[in-house]
UniProtKB/TrEMBL annotation:
One of its GO terms (molecular function) is methyltransferase activity. This is Class I SAM-dependent methyltransferase. It comes from Microtetraspora glauca. SUPFAM superfamilies: S-adenosyl-L-methionine-dependent methyltransferases. Residues 53-139 form the Methyltransferase type domain. Signal peptide: none annotated. Keywords: Methyltransferase, Transferase. InterPro entries: 23S_rRNA_MeTrnsfrase_RlmA, Methyltransf_11, SAM-dependent_MTases_sf. GO terms for biological process: methylation. The lineage of its organism: Bacteria, Bacillati, Actinomycetota, Actinomycetes, Streptosporangiales.
Length: 251
């Protein structure tokens, strides 16, 4: 039976958005995955590392999927619900989970890790990454790229000016400015499909930078229009962008 707009809204508004697990969207939204397979790359590098750090681990989901972790593995997170979730998931595997609060400095010694990773960081502190990496150590990250799901942003907020904060070439320049050598840099556009208005509500509550300040009450008229469009034309199609960057600290 087809659910009403109000039913879909109520269900999505009450769903928990803790952690970085999107399984609530199964059957309601889909997103192509980048061809490089970030989790596989992390697992391969973790198997060779002696000391590793996962920055902005979220709920620890990616790190928990790694079959073989180094004896010394740490993770940082600043959002309290995610700190608790990551601790529950990772501490049984011997991972030290550090609550970094709002601080930008990593609470680790210089040259502490031979591998640093981060998936979808809110921002990247290149100077700090370079500081905690051992000479010859590497940083691997999958980041949200430029104008990711811009179709959704502009549906709710109207046309947006060009933005460059998540441009991969800016990331390259920042890494090199911090003294790192960029080994790999790739960008892909990924088809993203929303099948109902509840899916986009959940997504916007969880990925808060797509429509800053999103709440159901604030955007109820736009949500109604989104729902009506899907009812009339079928699923809403957007395009996520992701880039992979790998950099090394020179010996």
């Amino acid at each position: 039976m087809t659910r009403t707009f109000d039913e879909l809204v109520a269900e999505a508004e009450s769903a928990s958005v803790d952690g970085w697990d999107f399984s609530w969207l199964d059957g309601r939204a889909t997103e192509e995955r980048p061809s490089w397979g970030y989790a596989r790359l992390v697992a391969e590098r973790m198997a060779r590392a002696t000391a590793a750090l996962d920055i902005q681990t979220g709920g620890g989901e990616v790190l928990a999927s790694v079959p073989h972790l180094p004896a010394l593995t740490a993770a940082t997170e600043s959002w309290p619900p995610n700190v608790a979730r990551a601790s529950h998931l990772l501490r049984p595997r011997g991972v030290v989970v550090v609550d970094t609060g709002d601080g930008s400095r990593l609470p680790f010694a210089d040259d502490a890790f031979d591998l640093v990773v981060s998936r979808h960081p809110v921002s990247t502190g290149w100077e700090e990454i370079a500081r905690v990496l051992q000479p010859g150590g590497t940083y691997l990250s999958q980041e949200v790229g430029p104008r990711s799901v811009a179709e959704v942003t502009e549906f709710f907020m109207g046309p947006q000016p060009p933005g460059y904060a998540r441009d991969p070439e800016r990331a390259r320049a920042a890494a090199e400015s911090a003294g790192l050598e960029v080994l790999d840099l790739r960008l892909e556009s990924l088809r993203t499909v929303f099948h109902d208005v509840g899916a986009v509500i959940y997504f916007l509550r969880k990925v808060i930078w797509i429509v800053p300040g999103f709440t159901v009450d604030r955007y109820r008229a736009e949500l109604r229009a989104f729902h009506d469009r899907i009812e009339a034309d079928g699923p809403f199609v957007a395009h996520a962008t992701r880039f992979l960057i790998e950099a090394r600290k020179p010996v």
